[in-house]
Amino acid sequence: MDGARSSSRPRPSSRPTTPLRPSSRSSLREAHGYGHSISNAGYNQPAINALEPQFAELADSMADLEANFMHLQLMHESLTRFSESFASFLYGLNMNAFCLDFPEAPIADSFRRAKQAEAQKGMETIARVLWSGSLS
């Protein structure tokens, strides 16, 4: 049984496996075997310098994005001013309608009289048609 136990995987230690302090770039290059090949090849600039054009393009794009957001903010402010002004105009019209009388506006009797007049006109038309038909 001791032989079976010794051939099994070792138990993990209770100590943390992560380093206590961050590694530097040079130690990472040397750990992976890149330290000597880079210095022997004549490269003495950091690898991040190769990304400089992409970062410049990103910075330009971010500047364009900021300008577009500023234009969007101006458009938002303009629409807000218009909305407030138009709402004030509509409120004024509403208050005007409450404060003024419109004597020419129809009332319930006006609609009743209009229906009676229409019915009367229809009866006269029918009578005229019948009268003209009986004379012929």
Protein traits:
single chain, mainly alpha, 136 residues, 2 domains
Notes on the structure:
The chain is 70% helix and 0% strand. The chain is an all-alpha fold. It folds into 2 domains: 35-100; 105-136. The relative contact order is 0.03.
How far the N terminus sits from the C terminus, by CA atoms, comes to: 132 Å
Which blocks of ≥5 consecutive residues have pLDDT under 50? none
Helix content: 55-70%
In DSSP terms, counting alpha (H) and pi (I) runs of 4 or more, how many helices?
A: 5
Rg calculated over all Cα atoms = 46 Å
Care to count the β-strands? 0
Q: H/E element string? A: HHHHH
Strand content: under 5%
Number of domains: 2
> Main beta sheet, described?
none
Q: What gross morphology would you assign?
A: elongated
Q: Structural class of the secondary structure composition?
A: mainly alpha
Mean pLDDT: 79
Write the layout of secondary structure elements.
Layout: H1 2-7, H2 25-31, H3 35-40, H4 52-99, H5 108-135
Short account of what is shown:
By secondary structure, this protein is mainly alpha-helical. It has helices at 2-7, 25-31, 35-40, 52-99, 108-135. The chain starts with a helix and ends with a helix.
